[in-house]
């Protein structure tokens, strides 16, 4: 009884201070939530969802009589810039084929700083690996040479090598949307940013293994992590991630969130360049 009385006395004597601390904590929490809401809405509205990276290209490749150009070097370059091999005589831009060591190619339209190149069927004859003549395929008229369009070397966004091509949700095939939702977040349309069941399951597993290896993240939480947070694994970051996910769901529609996710999802590498978004993949 004496201990309980001392505890009551402590609460009575310090009630004003305790109430003040609770009020400060409450105001601080409200302020943090408001600040977080302002940050995510500002960044989401002006996010990189519709930004495209800076693309770095090689120079255009000239092919003129007298040059040495082995097929083993030229054919991969043609494939990299969008040409494909034809079985019969080339009839459409972007087609090529080798006939008895000579190259038939239907050049594609492309713009270069000093000139615009138009689609044109060409035949390049070779003497071994040396270009002998360059002629128009339709009338045999000789040309001084041709240029193959520049090849994309890399894409850079925000100092990272990253390639992306934004796409509107209504242009994404439904089968792709269904597959991603089934894989990443089956209950996407039925939660408000976080899955309580998923969080509890992940927390139980993490506590048992004394780690933070299981995320339990919803699709919205994954988007928050990609747009606003770093890959740090900590309880504090997971808490901020959950709060941001709930606020994002409160402010934006499911379709807006899904569209942003489809443009932010990491889908592999092309060499050193990250492939971001379903359209680029």
Q: What would you note in describing this structure?
A:
This protein is of the alpha+beta class and 281 residues long. The protein folds into two domains: 43-58 and 154-281, Biosynthetic peptidoglycan transglycosylase-like (Penicillin binding protein transpeptidase fold, Orthogonal Bundle); 59-150, Penicillin-binding protein 1b domain (Penicillin-binding protein 1b fold). Helix content is 41%, strand content 23%. It has eight helices and 14 strands. Strands 1-11-12-14-13 form a five-stranded mixed beta sheet, with no helix packed on it. It has a five-stranded mixed beta sheet with strand order 3-4-5-8-9, with no helix packed on it. The chain has a two-stranded antiparallel ribbon with strand order 2-10. Helix 2 (15-45) packs across helix 7 (235-251) and helix 6 packs across helix 7. The protein starts with a helix and ends in a 5-residue tail after the last strand. The mean pLDDT is 81.
Strand content: 15-25%
Order of helices and strands: HHEEHEEEEEEEEEEHHHHHEE
Specify the number of helices.
8
Strand order of the largest sheet: 1-11-12-14-13
* CATH topology type of the largest domain: Penicillin binding protein transpeptidase fold
- Give the number of DSSP strands: 14
> Largest beta sheet, briefly?
5 strands, mixed
Helix content: 40-55%
Structural class given helices, strands, pairing?
alpha+beta
Poorly predicted sequence stretches spanning 5 or more consecutive residues: none
Q: Given this structure, which CATH class of the largest domain is correct?
A: Mainly Alpha
Please name the CATH architecture of the largest domain: Orthogonal Bundle
CATH superfamily caption of the largest domain: Biosynthetic peptidoglycan transglycosylase-like
The N- and C-terminal alpha carbons lie at a distance of: 71 Å
Mean pLDDT: 81
Overall morphology: elongated
Radius of gyration computed on alpha carbons: 30 Å
User: How many individual domains?
Assistant: 2
